[in-house]
């Protein structure tokens, strides 16, 4: 259940756990922003000569403190021992507090907010179909990979030996970039820096030294990054894979690259990329995937009952609903019959198929066309969008004119941050909700004691490094260097590319775009079931880098824990 739907007693327990966790988190952040005092300061502080307000407003003097940590010793060995003593004591304090922090786990059914939004203001709900209302099993990715691989062999005359390659379910993650000219798959952060250690040629990692040599560093210039929709076009050599359907495509690219390298076959990476792209497109456009899913729909579609419950709840509340999808009518009709029932069209005020998003949101030239139940296209001009009818193509401007559904009273859900959400929030002022199925797995990992321990220690270690880096003698620098190496987080999310949302310490490029184009995001549409329609979503108030990490409501707890954290350094 979402936090707001918990019983009062559970909420109080949750709040107390949150306060205890915040005490430690703020203290760790304080290590990076506060002056670390001498024993004399501690005695004065303990005697009450410093109030909470003075503590919060005091400016950092970390360099002066760090310079004096080992001032009593001039010997390098004593300096090293002192630094390791501080390290060990910090690690002990961190370990002791893990049970408290672990009690404050994240609910995977929570709806997370990037921007404040109230459901009270939403009158119309819109949905994509694939990976929004219909969730697919892993069998679908295997199907797409196998069909596209066979198309490469049959239609593009690729080597027969490629048939030995099977789909690797946990190889890639969404949001990766692919350098079309260099045939490299990689993860890039929000500042256009490549995360070293996540660059793959074929199925094998490329050394950091080789990556730095190829890119003259690890930064990717704006002019070669993917375009606005993540595509490699108009001089952009990078392609960003933002669609969940793109996981088989990334894996196929990597497998074919691997085959060519293993057999010392000279090939043009640009041709390979285009051929794989065309093969994947054929799987969709020629209807091969659609027919396979329709033939065994129970094998490929899951979570149907949850989507049905959401649609039913919205209908009971008198909300208007519409569906805009790029999938064809027969495929959507078969899937919605399975998920909702034969009367599924009664729930929607407007249904649009083969919309050709994102062009649907920008191209004013394509008119709507009505589709019969048998799939026949009618030629009459559309003067209104009628409930129970099916429409093909069209464009958003005509949609707005015919429905009058404008602005922030509309909330649209989709899984593709660019094709589904970007234009709606930037150009039309609709509210947007991103469906990120990967959240469930990542939150499950985040709630483990291993992850909590790793991240809590990472914060504490970062504070140590920041304070102690001013010691320039070789012995101290060697110690700090060991700490810096330890600071690199382990790949506990995905063995090759790590988390969808973070590089080692920065948000990923995917995460940056998510925060910009989605007002809210969640693991599945079913998360709506835990909230009433008066609920307001608030983004978490986190301090900017130049702001104090101590907020007034936590001042008492921060004051107490500040005393504890000081004891590590005096």
Record keyword descriptors for this entry.
570 residues, alpha/beta, Rossmann fold, nine-stranded mixed β-sheet, three-stranded antiparallel β-sheet, 44% helix, disordered N terminus, hydrolase, HAD-SF_hydro_IG_5-nucl, metal-binding, magnesium, 5'-nucleotidase activity
Structural description of this entry:
- By secondary structure, the protein is α/β, with parallel strands linked by helices.
- The chain folds into three domains: 76-110 and 439-537, no CATH class; 137-295, no CATH class; 303-408, 3-Layer(aba) Sandwich (Rossmann fold), CATH 3.40.50.1000.
- Helices cover 44% and strands 10% of the residues.
- It has helices spanning 8-33, 39-46, 52-57, 62-69, 76-102, 139-155, 208-215, 246-262, 269-285, 288-295, 297-300, 304-316, 329-339, 396-403, 417-427, 438-446, 449-468, 474-486, 509-517, 555-566; strands at 112-113, 117-118, 124-127, 135-136, 177-179, 184-186, 200-201, 204-205, 238-240, 301-302, 320-324, 350-353, 368-371, 390-393, 410-414, 431-435, 520-522, 536-537.
- A nine-stranded mixed beta sheet has the order 1-17-16-15-3-11-12-14-13, with helices on both faces. A three-stranded antiparallel beta sheet has the order 6-5-9, with no helix packed on it. A two-stranded antiparallel ribbon has the order 2-18.
- Helix 6 (139-155) packs across helix 10 (288-295).
